[in-house]
Amino acid sequence: MPQPGPVASDPLRRVAEVMHAVRDRCVWTQQITHRDLVPYLVEESAELIDAVEAGTRDDMREELGDLLWQVLFHAEIAARDTEEPFDIDDVAAGLEQKMVRRHPHVFGDAVARTPDEVLVLWNAAKAVEKRERRSVLDGVSQRMPSLALAQKLLGRSAEVAEAPRVVASAEPETEAELGDALLALVAHARVNGWDAERALRERLRALEADVRRAEADLEE
């Protein structure tokens, strides 16, 4: 079996070289674009979430690797762009600089003794980086799952004004009223420090387990 290239000194560099060789030699990989990879990125991210919340340590290690492969894949595609190329080293360098900037209490003279103080420093550094943004809602992806998006929008809106009061009907009778009820539940979750998206995922896992048990009982 041909080697992907010179043997690198660390696993991250070696897997980056494997990705480079795959892009060079695999005809399927050669025709993949950034947009083609998006469904795989969504799928791998979901599988990592499953591993974190309901899997084993081995599951989590494997899924982290699969997600890393997506990062390497995108970087390898970008490295071959004829107009604005960048590679995994550029990605890593940008990340390193960002994390140093956003942790002045670790790499500078700032002091943060509580998680809330850390968050203040983080947000201040982020505000400087994103100063071209005109709204606290800029940068929030509309492709987030709806419950997670609702929680994010409620949190961002609270940065500039009191969180909007959501009034829901006791018994929704229309789809619009159902939307109000769902948003009110997300607002309630946020006030209590709960993750609405995770809460529903865990309840759905319990439902799936109930269905599988019922199917098994029917087969006996």
Automatic annotation (TrEMBL):
Pfam families: MazG. Residues 33-107 form the NTP pyrophosphohydrolase MazG-like domain. CDD domains: NTP-PPase_MazG_Nterm (cd11528). InterPro entries: MazG-like_dom (IPR004518), NTP-PPase_MazG-like_N (IPR048015), NTP_PyrPHydrolase_MazG (IPR011551). SUPFAM superfamilies: all-alpha NTP pyrophosphatases. PANTHER family: NUCLEOSIDE TRIPHOSPHATE PYROPHOSPHOHYDROLASE. This is MazG family protein. It comes from Microbacterium horticulturae.
